[in-house]
Amino acid sequence: MNILMHCVYFPPEVGGLESHVYYLCRALVERGHRVSVVTSRSIRGLPEREILDGIDVWRTWLPARNPLGWTLHAALSTPRLSQLARSADVIHAQAMQSVLPGYVAKRAADTPLVATWHTSHFLKRAESRFWRPIFQKLIEWTDYNLAASQEIAGVAEGIAPGVSVEALPNGVETSLFQRTAPSMVQGDRARIIVPRRLYEKNGVEFFVRAMPLIVEQVDAEAVIIGDGPERTKLEELARSLDMADRIRFLGARPNSEMPGLLCSGRVAVFPSLMEATSIAALEAMSCELPVAASRVGGLPEIVDDTVGALFEPANPTALAHAVIGLLVRDDLDAVGARARERVVNHWSNARLTDRHLEIYQAVLDGHRREAA
């Protein structure tokens, strides 16, 4: 099968959606399918075209990392997408910015279109009177709609009544994300890992505010892995709370380093204010880390008290209580083992790839029947 993807960002960009698309594409190639990706030249020096682990990657200019830049990228990438669609069996639009280019390519090449609705950007705009009718048309024009969480699927079905949207959480490459040797030196303190990009929606501020409450009960330290516009503010907050020696800001790290970093901690924390199904949380669970997560979006679909703990968002006291409750457990290793088992059974990239291929084949067969 010849599969064509469109997404705004793709590795070497770091992020949950980028990881999801990359590992899905790589698995499809390993199974003998041809995969092309139309994405952005978001980092200076990236080539316009390259073969990355067997994936044919085409990059077009990204003017800016904001809604206007995404819109212009969608328009600029549509001619290339339409050209490649003429030899493709199916187009897959990854995230809302990709659906309109995917629909134009579908019409131009008479190629069926699958769309996946990801991220809080969709949920925030779904409430807008401007965006709702646009989303309705895009959902109705797509041959098959997927969503990264039950919450997103429900919102999408509410926007476009009569259209079925399948909730299919993103997957984890469990052969990479597994228990391995820690890459950070172990000390006496219980280490908390916070693998979050430093944007307001990820709620890292509330974790920083919770740290003084945590260390009152447990001798703990934290490593925050990720970067973003809130970093300076969060570092200043940590200093003001006298937590500078307890909280280390490691910055962004490539996926290849994450298993060793995750395995350097006792628990992982996800203090999100909005979230689909967090790939980063699933990756931590796959490395046998118990997870404390805010009760928002798709996080309660993957985390419960058998594999971690949930807490109310934007509540440092509730967050601290959840983390302390985990760190003082004497069966924490067993909790982590159950977390990995859950990921392997439900959210492995192999299972995700199986389901995508079933969907692609069904959509392609339906398209051929209509053409006949």
Folded structure, characterized:
By secondary structure, the protein is of the alpha/beta class. It folds into two domains: 194 residues, Glycogen Phosphorylase B (Rossmann fold, 3-Layer(aba) Sandwich), CATH 3.40.50.2000; 157 residues, Glycogen Phosphorylase B (Rossmann fold). Helices cover 44% and strands 19% of the residues. The chain contains 14 helices and 14 strands. The strands form two sheets. An eight-stranded mixed β-sheet has the order 3-4-2-1-5-6-7-8, sandwiched between helices. Strands 11-10-9-12-13-14 form a six-stranded parallel β-sheet, with helices on both faces. Helix 2 runs parallel beside helix 3, helix 4 packs parallel to helix 6 and helix 7 packs across helix 12. The mean pLDDT is 94.
Termini Cα gap? 20 Å
Give the CATH superfamily of the largest domain. Glycogen Phosphorylase B
- Low confidence ranges: none
Number of strands: 14
* Secondary-structure class: alpha/beta
Question: Can you name the CATH architecture of the largest domain?
Answer: 3-Layer(aba) Sandwich
Sheet-strand content, in percent, reads 15-25%
At the fold tier of CATH, the topology name of the largest domain is: Rossmann fold
Number of helices: 14
CATH class of the largest domain: Alpha Beta
